[in-house]
């Protein structure tokens, strides 16, 4: 086309000159139009059949000089003109960018002249900022954000993904987007995949944790899982958590034994957790108790039956962490003796048993075979802080995982129960002796109380062999049948246990052999217990079952049970001090605590 003599009325003439890709032609056309008094801006705003203007083509050709020349005569209407596919000149630049210096200058020129980075506006198919981010043109994205690009905008071409999705490889841009209000729903996935380093994550946290769409619990747990400890500690120090459920997961994830976190880092976590707890609006007593109990857990097995007392845990290090918790609690004005439980902690059997709710009893209730040495270290410290061992404390221990494990071991061979119970150095024996030390101080034997009687009765009902055996040996000796109301009448039970058949025989054997007085008696006159005409009474039905299930007692056993029935078994060495030189040696061995736990018959050895 001849640009020397052209039709001055052709509104497309500048566009045609640009498409010729000759700066000389563009200059000739503009100069000629100006000399004849034509409006250059009107020519620049006239699109071709595709809707592209002269500026669109100049940007497509990435001709900086031509772009600058056109911008001298363009207004914002020309600069932000949308083509038929809703592309502005700025969008064309970003969709075809290669992050070159030339493109940066073109972009800067467009923005300086008034290009709007947020066009197209309503329901856009594609946006300049997202195109630049997708192509990792970081400098271009930065310039557009500085020029007012909406960090929260999304488009159809990029599947409505937020801008942060494309910016994870550039922390500076990511922080700008977050500061602009952009969501970051992919943060957890980035952490788990380690797409961001610990240092980078900690850098962006001040800009992201305040976003309502961020699940702080998931982010924290993810950081702990990939060992991003600095980031996790930052969250604990700066974020609040609103529910006990959240704290339960946090404490468990951080302090469980086999999670790969070393002891030094756990100590840092404890400091951060304590700071968070005292910032929280939740009940601090429950939070501190949960933290203390989780930290005191010495067994990494999830199930009671899996623990055999040899988990090889560093008790000394756990002790250091527990002392750290107590020091921080006292420093914040809430020493352990002031902890008051609200009753919202999951304590399964306590309501029925009437056990007092306090930290000491909780520790005893959570005791496992592995944690007995730690509990022995804790008792003097807790007593020094004002905690007192009571009948509730003994009951809590007798319901503990430790006792449940020993009960299971009666029928298995993987735990050396004789070593645990008989050995003079056994921490279990020392702990039990310590727990019963205060018995009878106020006159009444703990093991004749309704709490212990009820605990023994419940143990019989559910087949808790070792617990029943312990309670009978420790002095429980009055066990009554339950009276149940059935519709319009009262019925006394004749089935004393719900245990399966094999376990039932072992329960019957233990009860028959070691119960000091009448077994599971009802409150009735003695003359109706045995005569034949009363054979169908519930107490005689039960007695008949027990006699069929268990071996006869020896004379030594009968003597021992008679003495224990009179004195109660707790502190029996003190109570029988004058009998030591009188009793025959074999009976003396059976009488005292250290020889109380015999070798029990296996289920296969019991009569059917």
Automatic annotation (TrEMBL):
Signal peptide annotation: none
Residues annotated as domain SOCS box: 541-591
Superkingdom as given in the UniProt entry: Eukaryota
InterPro entries: Ankyrin_rpt, Ankyrin_rpt-contain_sf, SOCS_box
Pfam families from the UniProt entry: Ank (PF00023), SOCS_box (PF07525)
Record SUPFAM superfamilies: Ankyrin repeat
Protein name: Uncharacterized protein LOC108683377
Protein encoded by which gene: LOC108683377
């Amino acid at each position: 086309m001849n640009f020397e003599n052209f039709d001055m009325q052709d509104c497309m003439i500048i566009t045609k000159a640009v498409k010729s890709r000759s700066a000389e032609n563009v200059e000739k056309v503009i100069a000629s139009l100006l000399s004849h008094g034509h409006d250059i801006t009107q020519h620049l705003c006239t699109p071709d059949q595709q809707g592209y203007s002269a500026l669109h083509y100049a940007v497509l050709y990435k001709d900086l000089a031509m772009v600058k020349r056109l911008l001298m005569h363009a207004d914002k209407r020309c600069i932000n003109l949308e083509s038929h596919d809703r592309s502005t000149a700025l969008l064309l630049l970003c969709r075809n960018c290669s992050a070159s210096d030339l493109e940066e200058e073109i972009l800067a020129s467009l923005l300086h002249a008034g290009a709007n980075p947020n066009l197209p506006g309503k329901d856009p198919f594609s946006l300049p900022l997202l195109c630049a981010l997708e192509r990792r043109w970081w400098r271009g994205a930065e310039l557009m954000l500085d020029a007012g690009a909406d960090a929260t905008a999304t488009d159809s071409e990029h599947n409505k993904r937020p801008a942060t999705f494309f910016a994870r490889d550039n922390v500076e841009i990511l922080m700008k987007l977050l500061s602009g209000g952009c969501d970051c729903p992919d943060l957890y996935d980035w952490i788990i995949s380690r797409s961001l380093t610990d240092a980078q994550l900690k850098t962006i946290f001040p800009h992201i944790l305040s976003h309502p769409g961020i699940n702080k619990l998931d982010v924290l747990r993810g950081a702990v899982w990939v060992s991003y400890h600095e980031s996790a500690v930052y969250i604990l120090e700066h974020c609040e958590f609103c529910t006990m459920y959240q704290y339960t997961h946090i404490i468990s994830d951080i302090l469980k034994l086999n999670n790969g976190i070393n002891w030094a880092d756990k100590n840092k976590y404890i400091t951060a957790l304590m700071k968070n707890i005292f910032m929280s609006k939740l009940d601090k007593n429950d939070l501190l108790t949960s933290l203390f109990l989780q930290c005191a857990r010495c067994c990494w097995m999830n199930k009671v039956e899996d623990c055999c007392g040899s988990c090889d845990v560093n008790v000394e290090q756990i002790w250091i962490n527990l002392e750290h918790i107590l020091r921080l609690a006292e420093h914040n004005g809430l020493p352990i003796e002031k902890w008051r439980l609200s009753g919202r902690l999951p304590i399964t059997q306590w309501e029925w048993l009437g056990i007092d709710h306090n930290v000491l009893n909780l520790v005893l209730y959570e005791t496992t075979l592995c944690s007995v040495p730690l509990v022995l270290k804790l008792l003097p410290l807790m007593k020094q802080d004002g905690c007192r061992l009571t009948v509730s404390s003994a009951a809590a221990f007798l319901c503990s995982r430790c006792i449940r494990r020993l009960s299971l071991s009666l029928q298995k061979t993987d735990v050396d129960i004789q070593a645990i119970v008989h050995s003079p150095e056994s921490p279990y024996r020392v702990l039990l002796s310590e727990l019963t030390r205060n018995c009878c101080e106020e006159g009444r034997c703990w093991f004749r109380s309704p709490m212990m009687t009820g605990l023994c009765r419940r143990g019989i009902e559910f087949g808790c062999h070792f617990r029943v055996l312990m309670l009978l040996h420790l002095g429980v000796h009055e066990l009554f049948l339950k009276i149940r109301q059935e519709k319009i009448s009262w019925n006394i039970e004749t089935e004393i246990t719900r245990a399966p058949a094999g376990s039932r025989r072992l329960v019957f054997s233990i009860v028959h052999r070691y119960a000091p007085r009448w077994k599971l008696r009802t409150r009735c006159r003695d003359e109706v217990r045995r005569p034949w005409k009363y054979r169908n009474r519930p107490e005689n039905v039960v007695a008949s079952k027990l006699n069929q299930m268990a071996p006869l007692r020896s004379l030594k056993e009968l003597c021992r049970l008679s003495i224990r029935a009179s004195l109660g078994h707790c502190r029996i060495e003190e109570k029988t001090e004058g009998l030591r030189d009188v009793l025959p040696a074999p009976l003396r061995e059976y009488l005292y605590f250290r020889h109380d736990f015999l070798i029990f018959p296996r289920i296969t050895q019991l009569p059917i």
